[in-house]
Structure formats: structure tokens, C-alpha cells
């Protein structure tokens, strides 16, 4: 199996007080690791066993017989992005290239933050909120359940888990308070900048449309 066991790139208590150790322990060990273990059990001994995670997600999404495997594989991939979208001492206005892109696309950071919070509030049930670089521009994208921007061919710059298990211990059902905390105390703009830098380097080497989406994301997940 080419998919490595998931890891959080900091200690469980390192995001406190914005996000508690208990939230990260339960989220990582009892959700992502459970998805990972179930995914492994479903691919073991099949032709999918040798695929990198991003390619496994896309291959399963196209196969109606593999919807259960798709959901578990996508949740592993989505959470890998989510852990890297936060950092100890994070939060605040964006800097560097991502700050420039947000200013160009949204006018101001305040408008971007408002649109992000409105998008989060619009999700009924479980899902994910993403900041992505699409073929055209920076976009705020919502996906339902375990769906992922990989399937659109977009490159994820940030992921925000909107399942209640991500914030219930701290915020109960107040999703807006969770999004505020993410923006003010957790968001990792350095990660978004590294992904953008990787995209720019790849674009100089050859056209974006000629690269597999999974190739971009394999690089970005190893970058933190
Ligand atoms: Fe989650």
C-alpha cells in the first residue's frame, strides 16, 4: 500500500486554547484513523492497493461500486489538508502571495472572511469548506459529506472541516464561532503560500493542465 499512515504535524495540545487536545485526539484517532483503517481493509489485495491516496480517491469516485471506499479515502485525504491548514499560533490576516491573491480576488481580507463565514453557514448537515486555486481564480468552494476539490481538479490551499465533530466540544452547535476561531487563531497561511509556490514552480516547468491533480497534492502534503 502506497498510502502512508496519517499524521498530525503538531502535538495534540499545541492548538490549545483555540482547539482542545480532546478535540484533536477524538478527531484524529477516532475519525481519520478509523477511515484510514477501513480504507486499508477495502483496498488490500486489489488493483487499487498501489495507488497514491489522491489517485485512489479519484478512481473510487468514478466507480459506483466503490462509494463506501471513496468516502473513507476522501476523508483521509481531506483531513490531511485540514491538519495542515492550521498551526500553533496561527490566524490573522494573510501575508505573502496568498494575501496578494485574496486582495486581488476579494478586494479586502474582511470581505473574504465575510464570504467564507457566509458559505460555512449555508451548509446544512456535514461538509467541507475550501479555499482553492481553480484553473481561473481563487475560489471558496463547499463540498458535501466527504466530497473533495480533488474531484473538480482544483488545488486546495486551505480546508475547513464543517462536520460537527470538528468543533462540538468547544463550540457545540455554534459553527460561526468555530469559523471565527479558525480565522483568528488557527489558520496557517504559510501552508497556502507553500502550495501556491509549488504551483508556480510547476507552471514554469510545464503547463498546469498537463499535470495530474494528484501530483500537485502529493507535493503539497509533504511540504509542511
Ligand atoms: Fe472531520
Briefly summarize what is shown:
Helix content is 52%, strand content 9%.
What distinguishing features does this structure have?
3-stranded antiparallel β-sheet, Helix Hairpins, 224 residues, binds fe (ii) ion, mainly alpha, minor pseudopilin epsh fold, globular
How would you sum up this structure, described in words?
This protein has nine helices and three strands, in the order αααααβββαααα. The protein has 224 residues and is mainly alpha-helical. It has two domains: 64 residues, Fe,Mn superoxide dismutase (SOD) domain (Helix Hairpins); 126 residues, minor pseudopilin epsh fold. The chain has a three-stranded antiparallel sheet with strand order 2-1-3. Strand 1 and strand 2 form a beta hairpin. Helix 1 packs antiparallel against helix 3 and helix 5 runs antiparallel to helix 7. It is globular and about 50 Å long. The two termini are 23 Å apart. Bound molecules: fe (ii) ion. Fe (ii) ion binds next to helix 1. The site of fe (ii) ion has 7 residues, from helix 1.
Topology of this protein?
Blueprint: H1 21-43, H2 53-61, H3 67-84, H4 96-106, H5 109-121, E1 127-133, E2 138-144, E3 155-161, H6 168-171, H7 175-186, H8 189-205, H9 213-221
Antiparallel strand pairs: 1-2, 1-3
Helix pairs in contact: 1-3, 2-3, 4-8, 5-7
Amino acid at each position: 500500500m502506497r498510502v502512508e499512515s496519517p499524521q498530525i504535524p503538531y502535538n495534540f495540545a499545541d492548538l490549545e486554547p483555540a482547539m482542545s487536545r480532546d478535540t484533536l485526539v477524538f478527531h484524529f484517532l477516532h475519525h481519520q484513523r478509523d477511515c484510514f483503517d477501513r480504507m486499508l481493509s477495502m483496498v488490500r489485495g486489489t488493483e487499487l492497493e498501489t495507488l497514491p491516496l489522491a489517485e485512489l480517491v479519484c478512481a473510487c469516485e468514478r466507480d459506483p461500486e466503490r462509494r463506501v471506499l471513496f468516502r473513507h479515502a476522501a476523508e483521509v485525504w481531506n483531513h490531511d489538508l485540514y491538519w495542515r491548514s492550521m498551526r500553533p499560533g496561527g490566524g490573522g490576516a494573510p501575508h505573502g502571495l496568498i494575501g496578494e491573491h485574496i486582495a486581488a480576488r476579494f478586494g479586502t481580507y474582511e470581505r473574504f472572511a465575510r464570504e467564507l463565514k457566509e458559505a460555512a453557514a449555508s451548509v446544512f448537515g456535514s461538509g467541507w469548506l475550501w479555499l482553492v486555486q481553480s484553473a481561473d481564480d481563487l475560489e471558496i468552494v463547499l463540498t458535501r459529506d466527504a466530497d473533495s476539490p480533488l474531484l473538480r481538479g482544483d488545488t486546495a490551499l486551505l480546508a475547513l472541516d464543517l462536520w460537527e465533530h470538528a468543533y462540538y466540544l468547544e463550540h457545540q452547535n455554534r459553527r460561526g464561532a468555530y469559523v471565527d476561531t479558525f480565522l483568528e487563531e488557527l489558520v496557517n497561511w504559510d501552508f497556502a503560500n507553500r502550495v501556491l509556490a509549488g504551483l508556480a514552480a510547476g507552471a514554469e516547468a510545464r503547463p498546469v493542465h498537463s499535470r495530474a491533480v494528484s501530483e500537485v497534492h502529493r507535493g503539497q502534503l509533504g511540504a509542511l
